[in-house]
Amino acid sequence: MPQMAPISWFLLFLIFSGTLLMFNFLTYFSFLPPAPTTDPQQATKLNPLTWKW
């Protein structure tokens, strides 16, 4: 069974690492979370806290 030279293993490692990083970056930056919308009536209403201690 033929063996691979060390530079080939390193090149294979770089290709797989680059593919993994590119896949993760594309997956992370392709989804934009929806911006939270604040209701003007809800923003002005304050929730009073009643402490029971």
Automatic annotation (TrEMBL):
Keyword presence, Zinc-finger: no
UniProt keywords (A-Z) are: CF(0), Hydrogen ion transport, Ion transport, Membrane, Mitochondrion, Transmembrane, Transmembrane helix, Transport
Q: What is its main location?
A: mitochondrion
Q: Where in the cell is it found?
A: Mitochondrion membrane
Membrane topology per record: Single-pass membrane protein
Task: Give me the Gene Ontology terms describing cellular component.
Answer: mitochondrial membrane; proton-transporting ATP synthase complex
**Gene Ontology biological process terms, A to Z:** proton motive force-driven ATP synthesis
Pfam (any one): ATP-synt_8
Q: What sections of the protein cross the membrane?
A: 7-31
Gene Ontology MF: a single term: proton transmembrane transporter activity
Q: Which family does it belong to?
A: Belongs to the ATPase protein 8 family.
Assembly: F-type ATPases have 2 components, CF(1) - the catalytic core - and CF(0) - the membrane proton channel.
Q: What is this protein called?
A: ATP synthase complex subunit 8
Organism the protein comes from: Neoperla coffea
Lineage, broadest ranks: Eukaryota, Metazoa, Ecdysozoa, Arthropoda, Hexapoda
Tell me the name of the encoding gene.
ATP8
